[in-house]
Amino acid sequence: MGAVDRIRPEGITVPLASRLPVGTEFHAEVMKRHEVAVRDRRPTYRDPVSGYTVFTARFLADRGYCCRSGCRHCPYESE
Predict the structure, then answer these.
(1) Per the structure, how many domains does the chain have?
(2) For residues 51 and 38, what is the distance between their CA atoms, to the nearest angstrom?
């Protein structure tokens, strides 16, 4: 792992633009599902496009490190 992974100031609420571009047709629905899952303390939500299970930023932050897998809602500073 090396250096300590740091959570971005907006990391729990705003995904990296490279992983969820603003303006895509599904952006608003993804963000709504993410917000509901975080509010309800669920670790995941179902992606409206692919149907895959997606981890929330809160779950990833609580895990305590970045796995470097390119998670959509990764709250950490590293890319």
Answers:
(1) 1
(2) 18
Interatomic CA distance for residues 61 and 7, integer angstroms: 7
Segment 27-73, tens digit of pLDDT: 999 999 999 999 999 999 999 989 999 999 999 999 999 999 999 99
Confidence band (pLDDT; 50, 70, 90) for 10?
very high
Q: What share of the chain is helix, strand, coil (3-state, %, to 5)?
A: 25, 10, 65
The domain in which residue 33 lies consists of 1-79
- In this structure, how many other beta carbons lie within 10 angstroms of the beta carbon of residue 40? 9
The Cα 18–Cα 51 span in angstroms is 20
How many whole angstroms separate alpha carbon 74 and alpha carbon 32? 17
